[in-house]
Amino acid sequence: MQVFKFGGASVKDAQGIRNVAGIIQQQPPKQLVVVVSAMGETTNELEKLTWAYLGREAAKDTIWQHVRARHEQVIDNLAGDNREPFEGVYELFSDVETLLAEEPEPNADKVYDQLVSFGELLSTRILNAHLNQSGLDSYWVDARRLIRTDDTYREGKVDWERTGEHITDTLADLIETSVMITQGFIGNTGEGYTTTLGRDGSDYTAAIFAYCLNAERVTIWKDVPGVLNADPKWFDETVKIDQLTYQDAIELAYYGATVIHPKTIKPLQNKNIPLYVRSFLQPQEPGTVIGHFEKHLPVPSFIFKMNQTLISLHPKDFSFIAEENLSKIFGHFAEYGVKINLMQNTAISFSVVVDHRPERLARLMPHLQENFRITYNEGLELITIRHYDEKTIDRVLVHKKLLLEQKSRYTVQLVVKDEARSPTPELTPE
């Protein structure tokens, strides 16, 4: 039994849907669960729709019509004269429009999950309809019926026991006769509200299904030939890594490597399920396999996180940064969902690097300012090098101003400012 996961780039248009269908049709017509993300940039567009809806902006209707039109264009291209298999897509369109006609409730994160989750529902309905129209017996299953989470909207925490029961009870017989098509990224609370597992959480969904069904393997289909030692968007001369240990994969994902979601590896490692990263553009190529191997990374690996903010906290009473202050700081960051990508402390200051998420930082800052004087820099880059040497450090610091450095035996993290951009002074919030 296998689990496949296809990302948004693989199903961005009708030709992508056909290509994915071709890969699926090369497999036996059963014992396969296919997890699919939203088409192309749909999640970003649905995020814009959410903010416009919450802000009661007239633009929400224009944004939604654009999203709907793109999906209808794909259906037009795939359906031919027979639209009946695609009726489920039009029902989802109607569900979105009903929601948009209602007054938004005050919990913005809850609203976000109810709206943004439609991206995966739409893409999987379209893929399922196309497969059935093409003669493959596939079965569409709503992941919200199967994956149970708490009510931490936008970062749902999985209830593994209940999720395992739902998945095995629902799918154990179905996968013996059909290919299952389901959604990444989404789950459901016990009260029936949709949750999401965090941006790019579809990889994690695939791992959840694999763990619960004791899969032989998981394959993540990407637009790259496998796991590379750097993102080609930021780095030339990348090298494909043929094999990765679970440990190295977890480290790379933790530090922000975009090829794998950070939560994906551990469930697979716990049951020794190998994870393959392969190219949907070159499906005949073997890609990268992640599993129990003895050798660690053969080459240095580079991870770039852009649009970072460096925040430095200084106690107003000139006390030391000790356990009591750290407890307050971490409590506030956890409460407002601001994840720390790097931290460093001295006797009287504590610095963190975080993703620049203005809406969350705006809620966090007033609480920190009660006890701390705050300075911060925006528009920074966080560069992580796994299995580094001085040559690799020098290579990434060309035309960069180094603001903070942290080294361990195998990993170095560098917070830098691109000197080619206009300088950003250190800022002190009022």
UniProtKB/TrEMBL annotation:
Gene3D superfamilies referenced in this protein's UniProt entry, alphabetically: Acetylglutamate kinase-like, Aspartokinase, catalytic domain
EC numbers: 2.7.2.4
Catalysis: reaction(s): L-aspartate + ATP = 4-phospho-L-aspartate + ADP
SUPFAM superfamilies: ACT-like, Carbamate kinase-like
Keywords (A to Z) from UniProt: Amino-acid biosynthesis, ATP-binding, Kinase, Nucleotide-binding, Transferase
Top-level taxon of the source organism: Bacteria
Annotated pathway: Amino-acid biosynthesis; L-methionine biosynthesis via de novo pathway; L-homoserine from L-aspartate: step 1/3; Amino-acid biosynthesis; L-lysine biosynthesis via DAP pathway; (S)-tetrahydrodipicolinate from L-aspartate: step 1/4; Amino-acid biosynthesis; L-threonine biosynthesis; L-threonine from L-aspartate: step 1/5
Enzyme class: transferase
List of residues binding ATP: 5-8
GO MF annotation terms: aspartate kinase activity; ATP binding
UniProt keyword annotation of Cell cycle present: no
GO CC annotations on file: cytosol
InterPro entries the record matches: AceGlu_kinase-like_sf, ACT-like_dom_sf, Asp/Glu/Uridylate_kinase, Asp_kin_monofn, Asp_kinase, AsparK_Bifunc_asparK/hSer_DH
GO terms for biological process, alphabetical: homoserine biosynthetic process; lysine biosynthetic process via diaminopimelate; threonine biosynthetic process
Positions contributing to substrate binding: 43, 120
Segments forming domain Aspartate/glutamate/uridylate kinase: 2-279
Similarity comment: family membership: Belongs to the aspartokinase family.
Protein name per UniProt: Aspartokinase
